[in-house]
Amino acid sequence: MTSVITYIIRRLLLAAVMLLVITLVTFGIFFYLPRLAGQTPFDVAAQYVGKSPTTGQILSVEHKLGLDQPLLVQFWHFIQGLVAGVHYNYGSDKTYCPPPCFGYSFKNQQPVWPLMISRFPVTLSLAVGAAVLWLVGGVATGVLSALRKGSIFDRAAMGIALAGVSLPIFFTGLLSLTLFSYHWQIFPNLQYVGITQNPLEWARNLVLPWVTLAFLYAALYARLTRAGMLETMGEDYIRTARAKGLPERVVIFKHALRATFTPLMTIFGLDLGLLLGGAFITEYTYSLPGLGQFALVAVQNQDMPEVLGTTLFAAFCIVLANLIVDVLYAVIDPRVRY
Amino acid sequence: MAADTADPAAEPPLRTDPGAASALLVVRDLRIHFPTDDGLVKAVDGLSFTLERGRTLGIVGESGSGKSVTSLGILGLHQGASARVSGEIWLDGEELVTADPARVRQLRGNKMAMIFQDPLSSLHPYYTVGNQIIEAYRVHNKVTRQAARRHAIDMLDRVGIPQPAARVDDYPHQFSGGMRQRVMIAMALSCDPGLLIADEPTTALDVTVQAQILDLISDLQTEFGSAVIIITHDLGVVAELSDDILVMYAGKAAEYGSAEDVFDQPGHPYTWGLLASMPRLDRDRDERLLPIKGTPPSLINVPAGCAFHPRCGYTDLTGGRSATQVPELREIAPGHLAACHLTADQQRTIWAEQIKAKP
């Protein structure tokens, strides 16, 4: 057991280092690259001020945001903001950005973090709900397909899976909206409702996005599971399990499934982490006010702090998901602990 | 099951040994064919042999001669796959080919068990060795987990694993190759099976460990009284352990007899080839080994006549029958059979004068 704990601590430290590096690189991309392209801090500050500003206004913003300081100092302030929050002070104009401060959106006149966190439940609802659907559906289909390889079920399931992988979400999403929301009115007037306000409405409004998003991933997971299961069933230790006289159901559920799940878990961690950073196309298709939509609008508005914030947050989700997967891996596969 | 047809001793196959009445395993005309897109693969084609309690049979042959397919066939592990199995397999008076797969499963691991070639890939990487032995024991014995665990520790002790009480909770990857094979053996013997099949049990192991494992199998055989089938391509292994030897070629028996007969008076040119290609200390080091020319035949297109004839150096002595007529397995000496068109006299002469006489 101690080996598991040291393993977890090692992974945690590694994750912290990784996040720092990601922050540095992202910060560099957003603040250093523009300078290389010839943009001065003055130009940057000019973006944050309203239309036709005076030079004085721009200079005050430049100073208030610390854009006139060396980049390394700015980076240090950024890290400080993430951990402890930042006071933007200039004369009588005081603004406090509480931790974790991902920056200050001058377009929206408020810190980025609360804006993002208010969007997060939408993305979380969408991603987790879809993940449950595609894990159950995809894995079950894949296992059945592998066990009945070549059967009509297998062929049909793999045919549908191929369609699922090939059709983009903006196609399946719009199709499902047209059919189930407008034509047959089964899910009319979709409008996101928080789970705390009305759980039933929350679920009703998310059914179509869940199914659409899950269809794509379930197709992918069905194919992966089928391939993995077929490979595992050919392993020597499955032959050993049969040679011991174990009933086939024990061979499949105890010996084969566990080995098939392990590589799937890695992919699942990445997929879920990626989605938590924003399910861009699904959110856009269904007008869900989640992180993905927030990021899209931020890019359209060229709101640098918002783009930086969502980028970092997405990276953070992936690192966290990976960390969880790594730890689970150590629990499942004893060979990883050494 | 009528007694007169169920008792394999009523009509002893092949060998007219009165001891066959006590035979634990009787295989008669076993055929295992796999239909594939390219044609029918006749992996085992009409194989018969007998094995008595406490005895050891060595099955020898090149890769693809049907050795492993035979052993998996006896365990009924081809059921459900695309294999077509026919013939008879009698284990302790019970016919297995036509038996209910559920019944064969009950016998598997219980009355017949198997050790595989590569102990690392044959053990489940995610379960401790204790768990895997306990599982094997508890499928066939209604005992508590604690009792099964004690049994597992006892088995690990008997196969010579030091500190079995501590190592029972280790995973396969924490053992060395030889120790892993000992674990496999402990698992196979956990239900005290009457028949133990060892499929190339030492091929994946270090040479120094090979001898230990062979000794262990031999010791445990005495202790448990099991009948053992050793499947190998290594004549040294069979020489050390076997009472009887079955030489297989292209899914058929080429030669079958006691170990002394097969080593001292081999009758089949293929056996001569195997013996001549074996490195020996009493030969000059400068002398080259004599490999059998050619490659094993495709099991989809087995050569007409004797399957070995394209590689055989003595076909001109048989008057062309080698290429046209499949040789029957016939007695060339009491209890010693070979499937070859050469007469017993020709075989004796060629072996004594041309092969054995070589320095």
Folded structure, characterized:
The complex is a heterodimer of chains A (338) and B (359). By secondary structure, chain A is mainly alpha-helical. Chain A has 13 helices and four strands. Chain A folds into two domains: 2-112, no CATH class; 113-337, MetI-like fold, CATH 1.10.3720.10. In chain A, α1 packs antiparallel against α13 (304-332), α2 crosses α3 (55-64) and α6 packs across α8 (199-233). The longest helix of chain A is centred in the middle third of the chain and has 36 residues, at 112-147. By secondary structure, chain B is α/β, with parallel strands linked by helices. Chain B has a domain at 270-355. Chain B is 34% helix and 22% strand. Chain B has helices at 3-6, 67-74, 101-107, 119-122, 129-140, 145-158, 164-167, 177-189, 207-224, 235-241, 259-264, 269-276, 321-324, 344-355, and strands at residues 23-36, 39-52, 56-60, 84-91, 94-95, 112-115, 195-199, 227-232, 244-249, 252-258, 330-333, 336-338. An eight-stranded mixed β-sheet of chain B has the order 6-7-8-3-9-10-12-11, sandwiched between helices. Chain B has a four-stranded antiparallel β-sheet with strand order 2-1-4-5, covered by helices on one side. Chains A and B meet through α9 and α10 of A and α3 and α5 of B.
Task: Fill in the keyword field for this structure.
heterodimer, A: 338 residues, mainly alpha, MetI-like fold, 2 domains, two-stranded antiparallel sheet, 13 helices, 4 strands, 74% helix, B: 359 residues, alpha/beta, four-stranded antiparallel sheet, 14 helices, 12 strands
How would you sum up this structure in a few lines?
The complex is a heterodimer of chains A (338) and B (359). Helices cover 74% and strands 4% of the residues of chain A.
Low-confidence stretches of chain A: none
How would you classify the helix and strand content of chain A by structural class?
mainly alpha
CATH fold field value of the largest domain in chain A: MetI-like fold
Main sheet makeup of chain B: 8 strands, mixed
Helix content of chain B: 25-40%
- Name the helicity range of chain A: over 70%
Rg from alpha-carbon coordinates of chain A: 25 Å
Q: What's the shape of chain B? A: globular
How would you describe the shape of chain A?
globular
Radius of gyration of chain B, CA atoms, in whole angstroms: 21 Å
Please, what is the oligomeric state?
heterodimer
CATH architecture of the largest domain in chain A: Orthogonal Bundle
The overall pLDDT average of chain A reads: 87
CATH superfamily of the largest domain in chain A: MetI-like
Annotation, overall tally of beta strands of chain A: 4
The fraction of residues in strands of chain B falls at 15-25%
| Residue fraction in strands of chain A | under 5%
